[in-house]
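Quick one - first record:
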Amino acid sequence: MAKILYCKEIAETIKQEIKQNTEKLIAEKGIRPGLAILLVGNDPGSKAYVNSKERTCKELGFHSLIRREEENFSEEEVIKLVKTWNEDDSIHGILVQLPLPKHINERKVIETILPRKDVDGFHPENVGRLVIGLDSFVPCTPAGIIELIRREKIETKGKHVVVAGRSNIVGKPIANLLLQKKENANAIVTICHTAAKDLKQYTRQADILIAAMGAPELIDSDYLKDDVVIIDVGYNRVEDKKEAKGYRIAGDVHFEDAKAKAAAITPVPGGVGLMTIAMLMLNTLKAAAGEIQF
């Protein structure tokens, strides 16, 4: 029977460490980490994420600045606001909640954020630094996966990691992190995705499988070899009339079927998603402390 890798306790431990280091930074240098967040539009998921980030800032003693704007907020106004935050010394991290409305060019907005304030790790400079192994701000979910691997003492050296998914947010950065010649990495990495004619051909080779395709419960035991470690990044709404909301949350892995074959598996919800906000706060603390030099 698989070990269930619940992440709530790990995420809470990280947040307590951040809180202690924040108090130390304030006491020793008079610097309070500041995070500015922009939300444009009324997407329910985005609203919930921003509210959670705002609460976490308060819990950790951060200075937070939240702007909530209507759907018709223009691209020019977004760019202007980001540039204002770039010049604000009390703001160490800038986060523009994605997705943005279709009339706003996400790439242009991301490239406007100063790399040293890009705590989401999406600016091309941070992406490039990550790829060549320099210190950078790492996207929060991949950073959370590495932290989970480290704290759970999951062996990666020489292991075959299969990443199912190729997004800029998860698939590409986690693949680049795990192939580097570093502790909690140094793996043999394969990237596959839904364009594969036979996805099972790849996933069955995995010692560690990272599922991040946005395909609800696609991966069942038939996709797996025995004793695989499964990190499920999927977060999908699945229609379920038995639930009061009319839906349930599911990962990309069929949890009940897969756990009988796996050595360890993250649940959804309750898995790596909990690590994401903790790593955003850690990135903001690093930005405030000037830990990453550009």
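second record:
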Amino acid sequence: MSDAQKWLVLAFILFIGWLTYLLAPILMPFAFAAILAYLGDPFADRLEVIKIKQFQLGRTGAVIVVFTLMLLILSVVLTIVIPKIELQISQFLSQLPSYTKWLNKTVIPWIELQSGLEISHIEGNKITALIKGHWQKAGQSAMTLMGSVSRSGMVVAEVIMNLILIPVITFYLLRDWDILVEKVHNLLPRRAAPTAGKLAAETNIVLGAFMRGQFYVMLALGIIYSVGLWLVDLNLALLIGMLAGLVSFVPYLGSIVGITIACIAALLQFQDPVFLIPVSIVFIVGQSIEGMVLTPWLVGDKIGLHPVAVMFSVLAGGQLFGFLGILLALPVASVIMVLLRHIHEIYRDSDFYCVEND
């Protein structure tokens, strides 16, 4: 590749970044739909080749099955999980005064006795009033926002259009995913096609190992933690379990966050340290299942993104491009990581690295 071609490629990349920044508000449904299609494509590939006697689903039938499952999962989340979490939070807030009373009469005196420090008592009424005040402000802000939205037909139309576009785009991308990949490959210069295909395959392994495998691990851990804490009879079981599963994309972070919050919630609810034992067992069992079953089965030995790279890419994407940047952070980080690995291989094979000074 000549210097002029290299500058042309660099200019094209910068132009794409600039165009993405300008079109970020309208690209969000397309990016979200592309991620859903990417997650569902392997399942659709497996379903379309299944043949029972003379009947075969084909690509369209397989996509319909996968698309229906996605809608069912979304419906369950919206109708069952979210209201249940909201109920648990309300119950916790209603019990907050009794929790603070126990802390003031039992926990704080014990800490003062053991440490010799003087600790101010927790004023439950102020905490409750503070939370209610923030809720009231949030409600007023939401009403103001809804009022402005209701007065702006364009904003309402945009929200409705996005809600309609995401499932429609997801369906068509999922149906034509393999065709689109093949067409993009055919557009590449024949000289660069083998290298580009190799890099694309490595990127798919890296991205798939995280987005597909880790997504299923997060979901499974959320269910395991929630069910386990529910068996312990913890009031915030679903909220804490799902939160621990959600942040488990960073190894051990989900279990650390989950067990910390769950132990605090158990102490407040049961007011007996004995209940810390079953709570700890839930997370020990969940972590063991993740290490011995979930990760080897769902992720395998593929090389995924480093946890630090994941956190940095998500934060950087959100800072640069907002919510669209968060959606595109992991795919872009996967491509960059594969390119850096490829550049590292070229560097290790170069004369600059291999030839020693005389």
